[in-house]
Structure formats: structure tokens, C-alpha cells
Amino acid sequence: MKKTLNNSLLLFVLITASIISTSCNNLSPEKTFEIAALNSNLLSRFGSKDINYKLESEPQIYDETQKKMIPSSYYDYFKFDITNLETQFKRIQEINEDDDNKELLQASKDLFSYAIAKQKEGYLPIAKLKDEKASPEQIEKAIADFDASTRNEIDAKFTKLMNVAKIYTDKHNIDAKFGI
User: Comparing 1-5, 93-97, 107-111, 141-145, which segment has the lowest mean pLDDT?
Assistant: First the structure.
């Protein structure tokens, strides 16, 4: 009797967890669009525009223990922003993919995975140059080289996401403005 009750309780917990997990990941088309496409605005300044903006700012990171922004190195500042992008990427990956949202999610994952990888490869060495007080010319050259190696690819991935997102919003009657 006790074994049957334990098995029944275990089955109930598994079914409940499965339902909750499924319902949390089955998002409305609006929420899916918000997470997969609108949040790509985080990448709208990708490359020299973003790097120069950050290098002109005071480097800061969020200190969880103090619950506030604190001064940091440029390397840690850039790494902090990359970590935020990785968190957003994880949210995209957690959305259940189906026939309706597959293209949107794939385009979004493609853009975010590329941007994160390239920021790790390019942004972090540039931040390190700044921290090590490299010459402005050396930093400018690294930024120009980064742009030259990534601009076409990031633009193509961003444009693809916007085109797919436009089709998705039209299909679901989501009010969104696009500046492709």
C-alpha cells in the first residue's frame, strides 16, 4: 500500500512538473516575438559604435553583494555585458520550438550566438588593450579590424532576423515597427 502511494505521489509530482514546465515555455506569439526579436536591439550598436561608446564610458559592473554598480576594469565591464547577452540567449533557447516559431527562433539564436562569440573574440582583447593603456592608434586599429571582419556577417544575420520577424508579426497581427 505504501509503495503504491509513493509511486502514485511520484507520478503526480512528475506530471505536475511536466505541465508547469510545458506551460512556462509555451509562450504567446507576442512574448515569443519580444524575447526572440525585440531583444535583438541589444545588438543594434554591435561593433565599433558599441565598443567606442563603452570605451568612452566609465567601466562599471553590477555587484550583487552591494546591489549596485561599482567601478571595474574595461575587460570586466565588457565581460559583464557579454554575460547579459548570454542570459538573453538562454531565454531564447528555452522557448519551445514549433513549426510556427522555428524560423524566428533559429534566426535569433544564429544572431545571438554569432554576436556573443565575436564579442568574446574581439571586444575582450580591445578592452584589455584599453586597460593596459595601449595607444589610441592601436585601439582604433583593433576596432577597425574587428568591424572589417564582422560587419557583413552581423548585418546579414540581423537583417534575416528582422525579415523573419516581420513575417511572424504579420501572421500573428502583432503591432510592430521595423526599420530594416
Answer: 1-5
Contact 73, 55 (CB under 8 A): no
C-alpha distances in angstroms, 177 versus 27, 37, 170?
A: 21, 12, 11
Q: Which pLDDT does position 9 carry in this prediction?
A: 40
Look at the chain and count its residues: 180
Rounded Cα–Cα distance for residues 169 and 29 (Å): 8
Distance (Å, rounded) from C-alpha 85 to C-alpha 24? 21
pLDDT at 13 over 80: no
Tell me if 37 sits within 8 A of 168, measured CB to CB: yes
Count other C-beta atoms under 10 Å from residue 169's C-beta: 19
Euclidean distance between CA atoms 119 and 180, whole angstroms: 23
State pTM to two decimals. Answer: 0.82
